[in-house]
Structure prediction request, 679 residues.
Amino acid sequence: MNEAVRLGFEPFLGWPLFWGLAGLTAAAWAAYLALRGRAWLTRALGLLLLSAALLNPSIVHEEREPLPSVAAVILDRSESMQFGDRQATADAAYAALIAQLSQDKTLEVRTLETNPGDDGSYLNGALEGLMSDVPRDRIAGAIFITDGQIHDLPDPERTEALIGPLHGLIAGDEDQGDRSVRIVNAPNFGIVGESANLIVRAEDPRGGDVDLEVSLNGGVPVRIRVKAGQDTPLPVEIERRGENMVVIEAAPGLQELTLANNRTAMTIAGVRDRLRVLLVTGKPNQAGRVWRDLLKSDPSVDLVHFTILRPPFKTAFERPEELALIAFPTEELFEEKLTEFDLIIFDQYERQGVITQAYLENMARYVADGGALLIVAGEQFAGPASLARSPLASVLPASPTGVIRTGSFKPELTGPGRRHAVTAPLDDSKWGEWMRYVEADAVAGDVLISGPYGRPLLIVDRVEEGRVGMLMSDQIWLWASGHDGGGPFAELIRRMVHWMMKEPELEERRLSMQAEGGTASVELRTLLDTAPPLEIETPDGDTIRPAWVNKGPGSFSAEAPIDQLGIYRARAGGLEAIALNGPANPKEYADLTSSTKVMEPVSKATGGGVLRLNKAGTNLPEIRRIGNQRTAAGSNWIGLRERDAYAVRSSTSQPLLPGILAAAALILMLLLAWRREGR
Prediction:
């Protein structure tokens, strides 16, 4: 304990009222002086005596317990500290610094290590949390041991928000550079079939040009060249609805701390503007209205529907003004605007001269270039005017035998149909019967539903970039009408159309992966009975080989523990999937160079300094205890302030101006003033 004596004041009226009264008194005395009052000195002494009495001065005797000043030492444990010898350097300096500071009994040292799992180095937030219960007048300073890449430093201009003096001890080789690439800006979504504009930036310590490879959804990468250190626009075409994973990779540079930041990725949600469908009905039939109503019930579908009521070879004797029919715009639909349609459906169509062979050849090219075609076969498909006997046959997965079977039969799922994403969720045990079937032989694709004698009823196929579906019966309307219990008409057609639109959730061979919560979850859909081996490539290039678990026909899953931020790649049977663990552009990998420049402005604003450690971490600066001077660092020393804080354990006070004495002195001053004024 230490004893101390001080002069104390406890105004009887409180400080606000006292200062108000003092101001009025001073104004009154000034007015008296301006009016040439003769007793200005004695009245001034009287007013001062009155003010002193109201202040209630006293001699205060205190017993004080000295309190140590508090210093903080924060050790950076973020991922960027794992490169090179940084962590070993920091650990050695941290241990030596704590040992040195602990010898000062007037200093309380608080330590903290940051969370290595954070996406970023948040040392200032850790400091504020560590010192939140310490009064500012006890803080001696703070020391950061880091590589210099700190992501939450405050604005140096806001000195009231700074805890200081703030010093930095920087680990790492300042001459070791690193190449990196990141996405500066990107939209959250884009229209399918249109381009989304990204802004990318590559960094290289040597400058110059950097070659980047850009891939979408695991496809073939496209190479572009960008200028290092400059933002570069990058258009990416959105190819499907749902998540589209864009991956950008830079080749290894001449200087590399890690290859993990040579690759970045992000997902862009693909949305369809509108689905344009052309429905051509060969003749009025019971299924035509069902098809039209189903497609028009979907608000995202723009439907163009033509029903051929009179083929060209029929002679019309009516006058033109009496005709209600319009000419079929074949040239406009199948030559000028063919590529504007996402899906074309032929419902019981036969070649009647309405659509020429040249137009059908255009349609075959349209499918090969990425279009979608659905054939709903009627009796005409088995005859000589069948579309299977036209240039369109080159893209059809089935060929009619010429036989039309009548009589009830029940459609059934095939083996591939129970595995295919289009039909796997459907239950064929309660399907109603159909009455007519156009017999065909499958020549390509996958048969999902079989008809009489196990022959193909629903066949789907990929043709180069496009897709084709064939339904070898005109009886699906029986399901829509509820005949014999009905069946999943709307669900089947909806799933088949979305498969033809290349929806990723309905791919029959699909590998997907999610990386979240320390686990990589992989799912495989295949038409095979067994799953091919699975390999998962981690961000640092290692390979994980988890085992598959059979979840049902054609469905497999696997899980693997992960502990790194970045991009994971899964490969199985020629399929590839990509998943991003953590943010698209981890802050920890944005800049891995060891630097003093990030901390210097903030340290300077608090009077601190930033010094670099040697590889062994042994060149610690001298620690000095300093007063409240502005500068708290030098060429090879850093200062921690001596705050001289204390806690008062007991105190006594003795009034300096008792009330009787003050009143007597005041009366005396007034008498002297009156006497002076009366002379």
User: Anything to note?
Assistant: Residues 15-34 form the longest helix (20 residues). Residues 180-258 form a domain with the Immunoglobulin-like fold (CATH 2.60.40.2950). Residues 320-324 have pLDDT under 50 and may be disordered.
